[in-house]
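Let us work through a complete example step by step.
Step 1: write down the sequence.
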Amino acid sequence: MITIRRALLSVSDKAGIVDLARALAEHGTELVSTGGTAKALREVGLAVTEVSELTGFPEMLDGRVKTLHPKIFASLLHRRDLPDHLKQVAEAGIQPIDLVAVNLYPFEKVVGLGCKPETAIENIDIGGPSLLRAAAKNGRDVVVLSDPGQYPQAIADLKANRGRISRGLAQQLAAAVFARTAAYDAIIHRYLSRESEPAAGFPPVLLFRLDKVGELRYGENPHQPAALYREEDFRDAPGRLVDAEKIQGKELSFNNYLDLEAAYRLVREFDQEAAVIVKHNNPCGVALGTDIAVAFRRARACDPVSAFGGIVALNRPVTEEAAREITTGFVECVIAPEYAPAALKQFQKKPAIRVLRLNWGRPAAGGLDLRPVGGGFLAQEPDASLYSELKVAGRREPTAAQLEDLKFAYTVAKHVKSNAIVLVRDGQTIGIGAGQMSRVDSARIAVSKAREFGFEIKEAAVASDAFFPFPDALEVTAEAGATSVIHPGGSKKDAEVLAAAEKHGMVMIMAGQRHFRH
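Step 2: predict the structure and record it as tokens.
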């Protein structure tokens, strides 16, 4: 057990500090503090010794130097089990500090709200992390509280043990310190790296702060435990899925989050009312509409069988009519920027449906796309653009309607697992071939799906996420009735593919930019 005879309290966030100080004082603990915290404690009638009284040295440099003094750090760092350490501090007139409660300058909050660089610099805490680390290093004999959320447990332990705290709890709290200071430094590192505008390229070190949001229902399979973590950052990142509000429904699973991410990333690409239905990380129906209910009906019509148990994303507020359409079938989740009150009442009739609210804008620039591999991560720039150019290949120019469908189809193809072939008519997917090892197989699947659900393929637009290595996949769609095609080009056989398109009377557009999605 650690007897708490003297405690140093110095906090930016005053939440809970008075309760902690009172509990300590009730057990005879001497309270030592700095300016703002000392004032808050005195206002409730607690006796406090200022740090400057203890050190004999006033705060200086506009508060940059307060606790950075041997009389503070020796009182924390000396080992209570070494006679020589005890002798040295006794000769220097230094008494132990047994508990430290410190939280750091709110750097994340200040820069998150937007501030001048000089303001950000002044909110980089130096004394706070130093105190925390010193106390945590000596965590066998010093209790260190780095977050107000830890106070209730410390108070309970203090009361249960009559002014003492267990070494087991102290060591848990010490470990938490290094997570806190590492996360704090990571945020500062990212901010300063951004502000210094380094040369193009990938940084030599990537640091992230990930805070646990909570446990998930399960992972990819029920026997796999899983959890969700939130990346804490200073950037104003619009529409992060991790910040979505769940209005109703069961807890989300690992797979739910993956499918929600795929769905909302696609639907927010469109300016017009749009609906996306995703199953197993691939869109199985995407459509535009004159209103959001129409868009959903058209998206579901693409493949109503695959839509069963799917994830629905809408880029407009959900109306009662749209909610009624959605609830006629089985869906796992719905995500949209807003819901009409009548729509929410409609969803309440199906309480198992997870309904999420998330306001989003266009995908934010910057950041990295990270993928875990054994022992590390792959990093790449996000796939944030659609095409580098739209170049007509061959003799035929697209009509305005064809060009709109080709753009729509290529947008969808960007979000379909490779190899991807997408068939579109009038702003509606009518067949999607995804994730095949052969592009011609994807083409056959897209055509088969369209026919299965009664779509007329004649005059459809075709999009391929990558070049056609051979004419065969294009010929499958052309023979089914498609009359226009968009792909990035770049194959050694581009001329043969164009010749096949010309033979079948197809308009061909080269986009110049591939969209493999693995």
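Step 3: interpret the result. Residues 391-510 form a domain with the Cytidine Deaminase; domain 2 fold (CATH 3.40.140.20).
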